[in-house]
Model the fold of this input.
Amino acid sequence: MEAFSRVPMAAFENVGFAYHSLEGETAVLQNISFTVRKGEFLSVVGPSGCGKSTILSLIAGLLEPETGSIFFPACEDESKKVNIGYMLQRDQLFEWRTVLQNVTLGLEIRRKKTKEARKKLEEMLEKYGLGKFKDARPSQLSGGMRQRAALIRTLALEPELLLLDEPFSALDYQTRLSVGDDIGTIIEKEKKTAVLVTHDLGEAISLGTRVLVLSGRPARILADMPLEFPEDLTPLEKRNTAVFQEYFQKIWKELKKDEQ
Amino acid sequence: MNSKQDLTAQQRFLRTHRRNRRMVCLIRLICLGAFLGLWEWASDTGRINGFIFSSPSQIAECFWNMAKDRSIFLHVGVTLGETLVSFFLAVLIGLGAALLLWSVKSVARVLEPYLVVLNSLPKSALAPLLIVWLGANTRTIIVVGVSLAVFGTVLNLYTGFCQVDQEQIKLIYTLGGTKRQVLSKVIVPSTVPLLLSVMKVDIGLSLVGVVIGEFLAARAGLGYLIIYGSQVFQLNLVMMSIIVLCVIALALYQIVALVEKRLISR
Done:
């Protein structure tokens, strides 16, 4: 557990954000401040539509905060971004590419598609059970395999910070548990820092090392909870512990309190 | 009887399927034969005026004579050549314009009503004007052919580009891509099926446009033959040209459909 240091990776300072349309303004984030530290797996939970995904888009730089600021203390030049990998809700594997070509998409875009990089990805596909499918089309993969392929595509760019936007929400419950387990383990093995956004409390607790609880829109931070589990449990095993239940109740109460 | 029971359900299904397909083909041929036979008979016995309505045998004879002196090949060649040139021009210009509209949204927003008007305008109305402007020559014919197909191509492709899943586009941005890469990695490859179905429509429209152009401004080609034939009251020639046009239209469509099948099943 001491593996993760206190080194901050990305920080929000009083960030506010609203969407604008002709019908009016929708405030989604209000005065959000928190820090993601190196090596940690931060789960962000909150009711649907509270602006969780917006947080990820802000970190990734796809959106700019309206008020406040976001910075990356891990970079020498703080205004610059760390290398970020973003995993979207649906896998978005392209049917007109093979699995291997899908996985190398990021490298192609950043013009880093070298022989070595390709070889490394092939090894990774092999390691995570997709070796036989590298020349298959995405439609030939199961839902879980597709998510793994999407994760490998994200990891291909060797991001320092991984953003996961409800990456399991499109899967059925059983697949979801096992893929969550898989992906949690892969991320731990590859020693990545990650921010997971989800509305599934169980997922947030079993995967995370810390949970950020958000209120309904416009989102405020209701609680910031570090999670302590007996060491070396997989996400699936964590679900069977007593501590898991405690955390679950605690977060549930926070969310309920906010509803009223 | 025994052997029939030995067949598996799948084999029986396949056999019925094949039999049905053969039946459909057969009935089609019978329909065609009956139609031609009736026509020939009515014309021979004077129930319809053979001078005005022609007859299958007269049409065949007309074709044979023109094939012998090779003049039909000239006319088919001219029409085919003009159609292919306007088809490729329409697809290229249409694709280029649609890409431009997608890349510069503000241009698209400004131009949209004009495109809609141009698309729904009957382009044959423009043909006489084009002849005055461009002269009675092959260039005019090709421009008419292009004008018929190009606006629909632009609108359809642009709409298709806009309907590409926003999340797929977001993926490219999350991987650090630019707008150009969105275009080359997502928009274009994901709309290949659309492009092919647009091409299927375009090949027909180009042919229509070329024939309209030939009506007005040609010295050769099937459209010219039709107009010429009707003016000198040689309706055999008119009918024969129409039938050759049918065959050309079918053949061109099938070629594009074949290309489509090849590319999509890959």
In short: Residues 226 and 242 of chain B are 8 Å apart (CA to CA). The interface with chain A takes residues 165, 167-168, 170-177, 181, 185-186, 189-190, 192 of chain B (CB under 8 Å). Residues 1-40 of chain B form one domain.
